[in-house]
Design goal:
The chain is an alpha/beta fold. The chain has a single domain, classed as TIM Barrel (Alpha-Beta Barrel), CATH 3.20.20.70. It has 18 helices and eight strands. It is globular and about 60 Å long.
Length: 370
């Protein structure tokens, strides 16, 4: 498969990760096969993903039965279940991480109901890192205002963090600043920044979903012509900021101490609107030192008909700046779009987490009475 489309994408500096993990996927050898045939070098998870995995089939029933004797708290039960999957996946990806230390990561997310509590988020992130003390574990923290402080504190303690649920350029700038300050604190305390990695996860397709909804409500010819453009423009402007901040004297000092850049990760890259090309959020965001975490259907689609043209993430940056002004002139406020998406994103994860715990309670109860 050396000439596959995803191998060509990887050759352009894009790390291919999959945004799903389940026990069935691990035990059947499916993940190992995708690593071999689809250039997959990382895994991301979130509460919605685990909720689906645990709800389907009976793959977790045996461990649930084991836990009956020792645990009744549904959150602790979930953490035990997910820990086993994440642990197995980090072992599977360990050789990737040894060869290319920026990859081979598996992400494990903090309880999303803590997203607006800095101290609780920090404590939980440190707990998860202590629970699975693996060099290729990412703990995911949402990029809320309180989350920024927790992210900085974790980096300052030498922990690798996947910063998730980023929508706005302003928030992304704050995420980068939190990462840099964390590294500076780590270096000042005598720590080794070379062991710390981070990604900044921009959610892509949801931006078009929200902006398009507002453009369609306006309904003018000019408004309708701008549908399907903001998400890619937003990501390209983020990458522009990435290249600016990871350069210059401040960064050069940290790099001289062994620090690693915080890569941009494009998440939510499946196409929600069937009128758009199903691999558009992969093809248009190709750039060195980036990650694209895809659902399996997007991986299959890109292998089938994805095109690798070059560093597309650097294209149309001037037009991207102009687009935000055009949208504002039409009555679509960029800041309101991204703030709405952040609030909804945190709430969706919290809702999935609540549903997940309900499902654990139900399975736990059913097995207890079996």
């Amino acid at each position: 498969m050396a000439d596959s489309n995803l191998d060509k994408l990887s050759a352009r500096g894009v790390s291919v990760w999959i945004d799903y993990l389940s026990r069935q996927m691990l035990e059947s050898g499916k993940l190992a096969k995708m690593m071999k045939e689809d250039a997959v070098v990382g895994v991301t998870t979130n509460p919605t993903i685990f909720q689906k995995a645990i709800a389907e089939g009976d793959a977790y029933d045996e461990q649930l039965k084991e836990l009956l004797a020792t645990e009744s708290d549904p959150k602790e039960i979930f953490l035990q279940l997910s820990a086993r999957d994440v642990d197995a996946a980090t072992d599977l990806l360990a050789k990737v991480h040894e060869k290319q230390p920026q990859d081979g990561y598996v992400s494990w997310e903090v309880d999303p109901t803590l997203a607006y509590d800095r101290d609780a988020t920090f404590d939980e992130a440190m707990r998860l890192h202590a629970w699975l003390d693996k060099p290729n574990l990412y703990v995911k923290i949402p990029a809320t205002k309180p989350g920024l402080g927790a992210i900085e504190d974790c980096i300052a303690h030498g922990k690798s963090i996947n910063v998730t649920l980023i929508f706005s350029l302003q928030r992304y700038a704050e995420v980068v600043e939190a990462y840099l300050r964390g590294l500076e604190r780590l270096v000042a305390s005598g720590g080794d920044p070379s062991k710390v990695h981070s990604v900044a996860s921009f959610f892509v397709s949801r931006v078009d979903t929200e902006a398009d909804k507002r453009l369609e409500a306006i309904g003018s010819k000019q408004a309708l012509a701008l549908r399907g453009k903001l998400a890619i423009a937003n990501a390209r402007l983020a990458y522009e900021h990435y290249e600016q901040r990871f350069a210059g004297p401040r960064w050069e000092f940290l790099a001289g101490k062994g620090a690693n850049v915080q890569r941009c990760l494009w998440a939510s890259t499946s196409t929600k609107n069937p009128e758009y090309r199903d691999v558009i959020y992969v093809e248009e965001l190709i750039g060195s030192d980036t990650v694209n975490t895809m659902p399996e259907e997007t991986i299959r689609a890109f292998q089938d008909h994805g095109e690798v043209r070059g560093d597309t993430v650097r294209e149309g940056v001037k037009e991207a700046h102009e687009l935000i002004d055009k949208l504002r002139d039409l009555g679509v406020d960029y800041d309101d779009v991204t703030e709405t998406l952040e609030l909804e994103g945190v709430q969706k994860f919290a809702d999935s987490f609540a549903e997940l715990l309900d499902g654990v309670r139900a399975k736990h109860g059913a097995l207890a009475h079996a």
